[in-house]
Amino acid sequence: MNPFYRIFGGLLLVLIDIHLGQIEVLADFIGYLMVLSALNGMDGNLKGMKGARSTALIISVLAIPLAFIGQPTGTTMGVSISTDLITIYHQFTSVVHLVLSYFLFYVLMDWSRNEGNEDIRKKTRKLFRVYLATHIVYFALLPFSINIPENVTIPLFIVGLAALLILEISFLVLLRTYHKEHQNRVHM
Amino acid sequence: MKGKTFIISLLIITISWGGNLWFYQSKQLEEPIFLEHYYGGAGVFELYYLTNRDESSHVMSVEFSDGTTLHAKSDYYGFHNGNPAYGPDVQSRSTHYLLKKTGFDEQQMRELEVDHEGEATIHFNDGKTMTADIGTVESSELREGNGIFRSQGTSSSSNGRSFRTYTVKEDLKIDSMSSPFPEVQDDLKMKLYAPSIDLTGTPDAGGPRSYSKELDEEWSQVAGAPLENIDFPIDMKQGDRIRLTMQEKPDSIRAYSYEIEFTGTSENGTPFTQPFLVSNHPQFTPEQMELLIERRGSQ
């Protein structure tokens, strides 16, 4: 299995949440470990690789408890976000996830440059900008939801979550493209 | 995006979290704030109080200043274990607060002859206890009808308007009016209509259709004269209608349920007393909640 496919699989595992009671069946930390092992199998000199590896390691450890503490109260009791420690821990993990994505984008762009594939590099660059900008705006605005009325936050929440989901899927699709490029190269 | 920009972005996210959590924390109440209640033993007895939005406890019992203790009706908490903001006792909610209500049994209150003023000791179901000024709570005997006034209808609307209408069965004279809580009248505009009063208007025929119309009308168009301008005695003929219309002011943050009494004599000389129930069921806007905290918080 080539490294891009493993990154793809790992991030897909993180995206999909299946809970049996408190326990998450497809635990996020397993997904992050897959990403970490994929990165370890790649060229260490790629730009962003060092950051990506260390972030993947940190989040793999950080995400272990997530599999056992269940969903934060904010998602099980309506849309409004609460201020307990579990919610803050969840949000912190999401931000670390963003850092991981940031480095992964760098790795991808450097890899495609080395391959001399300008098309896919440009595509990656475009998604990188939108992905990052949207996430930063979302994460910066999210905490305001504890202090402003529900009828304002709920529609914003829905729009924001939809945008994030679309971007997350676009990222996965992009990784699949890399996987195919990689395969083509091997077969050539 | 360069590394520096990214780090600054992460910093902004952290500041946003810190700032919002700090603001949220600064809005939290140390303990619930009770409304000022004016209960004269008529109608229901319900305690209203403001809590933090994530507060799931509710009132179990109240010790009054005369030493009596009443337990709250608890029948509707049985199956609720979800978000406190959507509990059965929540009357209004804002981003940070909940206005909650606890009901008590009026029959039991009458048996105990509760007579309370000022500080009460309140026990919550999570074991906490606090003292708070809850206002005045009195019980009274159930009143027997006088057979002279026949209720024509009562109506109330969410804009704080309500009225009570009676027709009289014989000729009579109303000599005076008294209220156990004249201070509540600061929160409440009242107009009394009777055919012999100098009035600003006449209510329609009194059928059900007129109710909703009068509930929405401008206060100046409401039939009758302001209660404080009325000259007693009021003469009434058999079949005349008398209507008391009440309008709560927007900054009213008290809970009340009591009777204004009109006393007089009937045609054949028998004295009578006719009560008019004055009561509200507070529902607060976020602004009224802030007003309550300003007026009654950390006393």
UniProtKB/TrEMBL annotation, chain A:
Q: Which species expresses this protein natively?
A: Halobacillus aidingensis
Q: Which domain of life is it from?
A: Bacteria
Protein's name in the database: Uncharacterized protein
The transmembrane segments are 20-39, 51-68, 88-109, 130-148, 154-175
Keywords attached to this entry: Membrane, Transmembrane, Transmembrane helix
UniProtKB/TrEMBL annotation, chain B:
Domain of life, per lineage: Bacteria
Name of the protein in its database record = Uncharacterized protein
Task: Report the source organism.
Answer: Halobacillus aidingensis
